Amino acid sequence: MSSSVKSNSKLLHLVEEVEHEYRTVLQAPDDDENLRRLHSLGEKILKLQPEVADQQKAIISLLEEGYDAVQIGKRIGLSKRHVQRLLKKQRLKTKPNFAYKVINKYGDSLMFSNNLKSVFNYFGLNTHMSNKQKIVELRKNGLFIKSGKEKYCWHDVPKRALYYFHSDWYMKN
Question: What is the pTM of this model?
Answer without folding.
Answer: 0.62
